[in-house]
Amino acid sequence: MTLFLLLGCPGKHFRGEEPTGEELFSRYNEALIVGDLGAWERSEQRVEYGAFSMPRQGINSPMVMRLERPNHFAVVFEFPGIGRFEEGYDGNMAWSLDPTQGPRIKDEEEAARAAFDGAFDGEVNWQERYTDFRVVGLDDCNDTGAWEVRMTTALGDERRYWFDAKTGLLVCSMIEVKGAFGSVKTRSTYSDYEEVEGLLTPKTVVQEAMMMEIVMTMEHIDLDPREFEPIAPPVEVRALLEDEGP
């Protein structure tokens, strides 16, 4: 699960034996597994702790992401002197909260995308999430030779992934996301993969959209949090529901 998600990674195409999109996804999942996944399989909730920054603006904040099966999540970070930001989905509705626009209940299309992107197990069930795989070719993405794959999501939109030709790991992705400002193309790069309980996880994700750059770094993942309240919208969002009435 990521906040903005996914712009293109231009580069020269190279010749070589071309795998299928399905083969690249299978290889990706195999590359992620480096040990016993028992802790992940037993986990019903997890909490990811890290940092959220906008380097060009000199803004930094701790970040906490709470996730719950099957696709519920809440991401919270707070900028000093600006206020608290939150994105989430609880199985019924998706919401956002920020100091500049206030609380907002997302529309049905946005909620469907939040449910899709919030999948607790990520791309493990890629066969159910995507169809119509198309391998474009071998590109240079984030200074890495990578196979570009375009596919159609279960929601009907196109996504583009770039898999490292050597390791099989995901290095770049691109998607067009609908938000408060309309549809926005977002580019993401993934790096600094480290093992967490038998699974490789990117510790650094850099996203670019609307002339902004966002860097998210993951510092710790708790697969068995002792205290975990069910995902629910914050009080500011619940107030909107009360204002709407029955």
Describe the protein in words.
The chain is of the alpha+beta class and 246 residues long. The protein has one domain: outer membrane lipoprotein receptor (LolB), chain A (Clam), CATH 2.50.20. 17% of the residues lie in helices and 49% in strands. It has five helices and 13 strands. The protein has a 13-stranded antiparallel sheet with strand order 6-5-4-3-2-1-13-12-11-10-9-8-7.
Per CATH, the architecture is Clam
Side-by-side strand order of the widest sheet: 6-5-4-3-2-1-13-12-11-10-9-8-7
Q: What is the total tally of β strands?
A: 13
What does the average pLDDT come to? 89
Largest sheet: 13 strands, antiparallel
Structural class: alpha+beta
Query: What is the CATH domain class?
Result: Mainly Beta
What is the strand and helix layout of this fold?
Layout: H1 21-32, H2 38-42, E1 45-54, E2 59-68, E3 72-79, E4 83-89, E5 94-98, E6 102-105, H3 108-117, H4 126-129, E7 130-141, E8 144-153, E9 158-164, E10 170-179, E11 182-196, E12 199-209, E13 212-222, H5 235-244
Antiparallel strand pairs: 1-2, 1-13, 2-3, 3-4, 4-5, 5-6, 7-8, 8-9, 9-10, 10-11, 11-12, 12-13
